[in-house]
Amino acid sequence: MLQKMYDWVDERLNITPMWRDLADHEVPEHVNPAHHFSAFVYCFGGLTFFITVIQILSGMFLTMYYVPDIINAWESVNYLQNEVAFGVIVRGMHHWGASLVIVMMFLHTLRVFFTGAYKKPRELNWVVGMLIFFVMLGLGFTGYLLPWDNTAYFATKVGLEIANSVPIIGPYVKMLLTGGDIVGAQTLSRFFAIHVFFLPGALLGLLGAHFVLIRAQGISGPL
Amino acid sequence: MGDKREMSRRTFLNYALMGTGGFLAAGMITPMIRFAVDPLLEGKAGGDKVAVGSPDEFGAEPKRVEFKVHTKDGWYESESTLSAWVTKNDKGEILALSPICKHLGCTVDWNTSPEHQNQYFCPCHLGRYAINGEHILETPPTASLDEYESEVKDGKLYLGKVKANPRPGVTG
Q: How far apart are the C-alpha atoms of B77 and B83, rounded to whole Å?
């Protein structure tokens, strides 16, 4: 049945070469943990992506209940966490995943650094990776404010003061992020927009570039 | 083990991989789905009846009463005002009708159409109902006005949940 449906589509659109090109390629021996167990360090990039997928999915579901508004934000988070079935798990996935994605990304970066995989011809992919790193930090920073509790509020105050301390452009960056004179209604609304639309959009574009480059250039050779 | 059906290593690995992957994906997505469908599975709250006055106040002519109910909408709780058209027939039975038109949800009023005396009238699409809420055939509504569960206790009329009105449509 499934095979027939696949064949029907494949006959018309010739999709087999597309996914073959994507998925069907040799994994070199030096990155395969079945050959050398120490090759597990090559898994960190994939794990980062896996957790990113969990973040995107759990985040989509959280917005079904979350409201980015100073009156309702905390109440809606309290409701989805304590009243809705599995709310504690879905928010837990997003909460812990946010830290884990940074950890995995850091390990991936260390692997790339110590195997020298960033060297010619892969310098550009290192740059794309660094941009992904900053986008991820931005996602962490903007997401932290959204529950609108005391931790969120003061962490954001501190973050904005750090932005403020940048020479010349600091005060402008701070005002752009805050959206007003105080950390309040407009800040929360902005951080929500940045967290769920702008940064994820940028992240998906950069991840696409990261993967296209690694497929085009291949994994770097053994040490 | 009876008849020997060989499975190739490739097929076995495919099944093993798909099974493991499916299990992991299910573990990830099941909590999210259950989280999203919670409103469907949550029990209906409420059912407390609210006093709206003494039964002696009502007679054959429909009288509109307003009462407040406590509404819990997720994390937002409020008092919302409902209204009912109440009549009492000669046997002393109370009928409390919901003013929400069964066509598309506008609010009906009693005796406001000059051409159709002693009927409930909905201004949105000219839907009409007879005195016990029966929908008038050949007007837009296809069901009779809902009624509130009612109860007389300690000389007071209490109204509760809305239920369907079993009366069929009438001509008029």
A: 19
Nearest Cα neighbor of A146 from A23, A32, A33, A62 is: A62
Closest CA to A221 of A117, A120, A119: A117
| CB contact set of B56 (below 8 Å; sequence gap of 6+) | none
Does residue B40 contact residue B25 with C-beta atoms inside 8 Å?
A: no
Q: Cβ–Cβ of A93/B31 closer than 8 Å?
A: yes
Q: Model confidence over A53-84: pLDDT tens digits?
A: 999 999 999 999 999 999 999 999 999 999 99
Q: What is residue B52's predicted lDDT score, i.e. its pLDDT?
A: 86
- The amino acid occupying position A5 is M
Burial of A69 (0-12, 13-18, 19+ CB in 10 A): middle
Distance of CA A131 to the CA centre of its chain: 11
| pLDDT, tens digit (0-9, with 9 covering 90-100), for B156-166 | 899 988 889 99
Rounded distance between C-alpha atoms, residue A102 and residue A106, angstroms: 6
ipTM above 0.95, yes or no: no
What residues of chain A, 78 to 117, have a C-beta less than 8 Å from chain B? 78-80, 83-87, 89-90, 93
Look at strands B50-53 and B127-129 and give their pairing: unpaired
